[in-house]
Amino acid sequence: MNALAARRRHPAAIALLLMVALLVTGGLYAALAPEPAAAAAVTADQVSEGQALFRANCASCHGLNAEGNAPDPGQEEEGAYGPTLVGAGAASVHFQMETGRMPMAAPRPQAPRVNQVEFSDEQIEAIAAYVASLGPGPARPDEEWLDWEGQGDAGRGGTLYRSNCAMCHSSAAAGGALTRGKYAPTLEDVEPVHIYEAMLTGPQNMPVFNDANLSPEDKRDVIAYVKQMHATGNPGGLSLGNLGPSSEALFIWVFGLGIMIGTAVWVGQKGA
Amino acid sequence: MSDTTTARPADALRADDTPPEQTSSGTVRRVGGVTGWVDDRTGGAKGVNYLLRKVFPDHWSFMLGEIAMYSLIICLITGAFLTFWFVPSMGLITYDGSYVPMQGVLMSEAYASTLHISFDIKGGLLIRQMHHWAALMFIAAITVHMLRVFFTGAFRKPRELNWVIGTVLALLAIIEGFAGYSLPDDLLSGTGLRATQGFILTVPVVGSYIAFALFGGDFPGELIIPRLYAVHVLLLPAILVGLFIVHIVMVAVNKHTQYPGPGKTNDNVVGYRVMPVYAAKAGGFFFLVFGVTALLAAVAQINAVWVHGPYDPSAVTAGAQPDWYMWFSDGALRLLPGWLEFVVFGFTFSLNIALGSIVLLPLIYVVLGIYPFVERWVTGDTREHHLLDRPRNAPVRTGLGMAAITFYTILALACVNDIIAIKTGMSINDLTNTFRVSLFLLPPLVFWITKRIALSLQRRDRDTVLHGRETGIVIRTPDGRFYERHEPLDEYTRWKLVSFESHAPLELEPATDANGVARKGARKDRVRAALSRFYFTDRVEPVTPAELAAAHHHGEEHEQLEVPAVATEQRITSGQH
User: Fold this and answer.
1) CA distances from residue B365 to B170, B371, B415 in whole angstroms, order as listed
2) How many H-runs (helices) and E-runs (strands) does chain B carry?
3) Does residue B440 sit within a domain?
4) Which of residues 198-237 of A touch B (CB under 8 A)?
5) Which of A31, A72, A264, B19 has its CA 20 to 30 A from that of A100?
6) Which residues contact B83 (CB under 8 A, 6 or more apart)?
7) Average pLDDT for residues A209-226, to the nearest whole number?
8) How many domains does chain A have?
9) So what's the ipTM on this one?
10) Does A50 share its domain with A121?
11) What are the residues facing A184 on neighbouring strands?
12) Which of B389, B406, B433 is the last residue of a domain?
């Protein structure tokens, strides 16, 4: 009888076994879980520069250490507050800042897309590095997943788009209204990387489509569909905002009927 | 063997017969050539002569119905083209046409053939867009035509029946439109069909049975597209065209109404004959309407089905609206609160949906259809009317019409609350609540404002007739008095302003006779008198010849004052007017 067998009923054995099990599970998870991929090489300088930028531009809402600023109970609708950014990841920062949504100019139901971005790419990278250093979160996607022209399947992406995206962004990707002044924005002219990051991080009212929900291939196909659809343009003429029957109604009543009645007045005036 | 030409004794019996006429259309001068040949065989000259010599009055608003008629014809022509390629089947195939984002997608043959028409048939997209724009125009033109008839009182005797036919036509037109809208089987139209199935399910007790019968089982099944196709291309067009012909024949039989004016009475029609004037005008107008429709279709894209993708019951798109003529019903659904759904004895009553769909939809057309009869009952007017009312001369009717338009428009706008919210940056919740309140608040307000405006316009008309037009020329008399010169109206203008009727409220007969016995129908009369007071208590009488003479007499005194002053008068042209 060896030593191990002799001690298998030792009171500490169960605790020891639990420790081993936890170690193995944790180790396996660490080895197999999708890597947050600390994007490129992040230098310490970048992190400290990002922290300085963060304190100057973001801390008033998100807190000095990005711990967040919870609203007083009952005051959720007003005042400036921001969620904690611990675990938000580089992809979030990249998406929010490169589309001009952050920093927000004023508290409002939703941060709008702003085309005039006030920060340079290096500054955004620095802030992203700082936020990524706070805790693991979604990282920037690899170029491979953005190559919709080469590897994307638009037909498959369209099916995914219609079941996952169209109910808010509309089938024409023209956007749609949500409750209380919030909205799903249009996807026209949105960079593929931003579409990808939006799906990955679920900004504002958007749900998160993580890699278990929509795999990176799926996300690439969705991007391919949106881009292909917009590339087709409007073969039928003026798009009228791609708003479907609502702008068509406005058009027929104002222009269609207007021209028809103008014609009728003209014909009616010409006596025999 | 006897000779056939030999007179037989029996021939004498027919000796007094009048010989048969040579032409079928006896009253018309005989013409030779092809026309004569056709007339000899059909006798059509008489009818054609009647039609070609028919007189119609001239006004642009009488052509609104024509726009509808021509749009219907355009729909029939372009629709025939579309049937050559459209496949009304819900059988599944994999798309391999030229629209890249749909390649390899499983879809119904209906949707695939619509994509085929749009992308692979020469001129297919243009014809499809013409068909859809013409359909929207058809119903828009019906609506404004109906409003013209309503606000000018053209629905009065003897045209009530034609008003009812028109109402049925308007209802059938929107059903026809909806059936066509549903055919491509795209995500948007499929969502509309799903909503329709929901409406049907809310019919108390038997709703699910009706829905199962229509869809041939549970939603969506495989039958609804072929069935809608039969309804859209066969059943409803036949009924629409048939009723429409009756509608037009009734216009010819009742003769066309005309606006009041010099020489226009209740017993004549002032205008031009069909040949040559209206044949040219109406014929030309058809080509203009066709041209404008083609222009719209060439310039503006409509119903981009390829964007929506094939219908899939698990998917839905934001900004899903039906075509505009169904908005009022969809809008009502968006405004109705959810607590109107309840369960009684195990049956679910979804009044939150039923009220806005299966109740509201027919209700609006029933109210429209019976309005002429209500007004006739209230006025007690059983005479024929061939002269139109100017809207201001029927203030309550005009007010009611405007209130109805307001009610309808609020419902319709509620259907696009999401589009309004996203385009204006407003909260959709606030918009919906605003619409809910406005729906009850605005129509009475609009009624009151319209009625006041109409009465004010009538008073101004009266004033203008009596005292003439204010010229803005201020006259100073030699003794230092000032007055503004009024220019009397010419007779043609005056005629328009004075030739209308103003109904007085009905007098209520005593409810009991001399012996104190209750009179039959007294209660009904009370309602009628109350309605009559509602209609006619506030009214402006047209100027009578006596009043006009008195006013002129008054005016002549002014003129006499003026005569010796001509040499010294100073004219001050006022810039204030």
Assistant:
1) 8, 10, 19
2) 21, 9
3) no
4) 225, 228-229, 232, 234-237
5) A72
6) B233
7) 90
8) 3
9) 0.85
10) yes
11) A176
12) B389
B484 touches chain A (CB under 8 A): no
Enumerate the β-bridge partners of residue B482.
B476
The pLDDT-based confidence of B182 (bands split at 50, 70, 90) is very high
The verdict on A108 and A56 lying in the same domain is: yes
**Subunit contact B285:A263, Cβ cutoff 8 A:** yes
Is pLDDT at A127 greater than 50 in this prediction?
yes
Tokens matching residue B539:
């009214």
Do both A130 and A148 map to the same domain?
Answer: no
B238: domain CATH number is 1.20.810.10
Find the mean pLDDT for residues B305-318. 89
Looking up tokens 């590339």 gives: A231
On whether both B480 and B361 belong to a single domain, the answer is no
How would residue B28 be classed by pLDDT, with cut points 50, 70 and 90? low
| N-terminal to C-terminal alpha carbon distance within chain A | 124
Residue from B131, B301, B424 to probe the interface with A (highest A Cβ count within 10 Å): B301
On whether the CB atoms of residues B22 and B39 are closer than 8 A, the answer is no
Same domain for B113 and B231, yes or no, is yes
Q: Which of A155-164, A193-202, B99-108, B267-276 has the lowest mean pLDDT?
A: B267-276
Domain containing B193 equals: 57-389
Chain A residues within 8 A of B187 when measuring between CB atoms = 162, 166, 171
Helix A44-57 to helix A121-134 angle (10° resolution) is 100
- Sign, CA dihedral B491-B497-B498-B500, equals positive
Residue B216 near residue B223 (C-beta atoms within 8 A): yes
User: Is residue A48 located within the same domain as residue A124?
Assistant: yes
